[in-house]
Design brief:
heterodimer, A: about 110 residues, mainly beta, B: six-stranded mixed beta sheet, four-stranded antiparallel beta sheet, about 50% strand
């Protein structure tokens, strides 16, 4: 069983479209995250949720909207996609309410905006 | 601000060579330090960690020591294998134990091990 699973794994779309990436974890963790990895492999946190509550919201454009229907799911919706949104998006979860830095990552969703 | 700097890659080594990947950090307070590894086509996995000065983290033959005086957390392995080929990320967390603590990554160092 995959601990942190993301869908889709690959997404190719046109500029201006709206798309969503889904994430589910079956580890019973309280905290979930979205990270963005650019073409140079640099990773940056976007959001974190603890038990459906937004905890961290980095300076991410409003076009990005996370949604957590329950503590096992954290989805990422992106409106009006731009070329610069092309990246690999990683979902992660953490086993403790208080963040110790030990994260479990999904395999990533590669988004290509044409 | 808080940041992590790693040595530039890619690093190419022959099997059984000694590996060092340098990592230095800038942080306020007392961060916890980590090395994560990303194998091709996969997500990141925690490799090892250290939570206070002079702690040594170790796993799978890899080691790193938390050096507060030099603000460093260099990754070492005595004898690398082809299966160690991956991208290695040094990271720190600000305010460990706090919900708002963020895991901040270095830029990653790609390691390629040749048979």
């Amino acid at each position: 069983d995959t601990a942190v699973s993301q869908t889709p794994k690959y997404l190719v779309t046109q500029m201006g479209n709206d798309k969503s990436i889904k994430c589910e974890q079956n580890l019973g963790h309280d905290t979930m995250y979205w990270y963005k990895q650019d073409s140079k492999k640099f990773l940056k946190i976007m959001f974190s949720y603890n038990n459906k509550e937004l905890i961290i919201n980095e300076t991410v454009p409003n076009r990005f909207s996370p949604k957590s229907p329950d503590k096992a799911h954290l989805n990422l919706h992106i409106n009006s996609l731009e070329l610069g949104d092309s990246a690999v998006y990683f979902c992660a979860s953490s086993p403790r309410t208080k963040n110790t830095g030990e994260l479990f990552f999904g395999e990533g969703s590669r988004l290509t905006v044409l | 601000g808080n940041s992590v700097t790693q040595m530039e890659g890619p690093v190419t080594l022959s099997e059984e060579a000694f590996l060092t990947i340098n990592c230095t950090y800038t942080a306020t307070g007392y961060p916890s330090l980590f090395w994560y590894v990303q194998y091709p086509g996969e997500g990141l996995q925690l490799l090892l960690k250290a939570t206070k000065a002079d702690d040594k983290g170790s796993n799978k033959g890899f080691e790193a020591t938390y050096r507060k005086e030099t603000t460093s957390f260099h990754l070492e392995k005595g004898s690398v294998q082809v299966s160690d080929s991956a991208v290695y990320f040094c990271a720190l967390i600000t305010r460990p134990g706090n919900q708002g603590g963020k895991l901040i990554f270095g830029q990653g160092t790609e390691l390629s091990v040749k048979p």
